[in-house]
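User: I'm writing a short report section on ligand binding and want a predicted complex to refer to. Could you take this sequence and 4-nitrophenyl phosphate and write out the structure as tokens? A short remark afterwards would be nice.
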Amino acid sequence: MTETGKYNVLFICLGNICRSPAAQAVLQRMVDERGLSERFFIDSAGIGGWHIGDLPDKRMRVHARPRGYELTHRARKVQYADFEDFDLIVGMDASNVDDLRSLAATIEQQDKVVMMGDYIRQYPNYDYVPDPYYEGSEGFELVLDLLEDACDNLLNQIIKQNNITK
Ligand code: 4NP
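Assistant: Sure. The structure tokens for the complex follow:
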């Protein structure tokens, strides 16, 4: 918890144009619906910098919209300050988590890194959120299904472990 009194969550994927901006929107809506908007700051970033400044991938936006998510994040690359500024850094797959742990400067920073797959409950065949970039529509729907499941569980755990109230 930072001086602002907010709990800061950073979602990370490879390009920051598909999975992590979608995760950001999903968790933000859950937080808003629970009246906890003032208690959280939620952001996303990419391991790579190929899409810096871009809106999320059109396909991700098109699939997110009917579920009520408007994806307006602009892509950015993860930076060293993120390991200080955020309480929890959530990678979408094992490769993201490995990259993040090697970027961390201290053990304490490494310990902030968790894997989104560990919060998936309703899809026992998935222990990570697969990259949809080279997939069809089903890949993008799957990402949203997994994120809605995992974010609900993630939020419950954060609230419980940090005694967060309205
Ligand atoms: P994301 O998907 O990591 O879910 O944003 C990708 C987007 C772009 C690339 C790879 C994955 N890329 O190689 O440009």
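A remark for your report: The two ends are 15 Å apart (CA to CA). Residues 68 and 141 are 13 Å apart (CA to CA).
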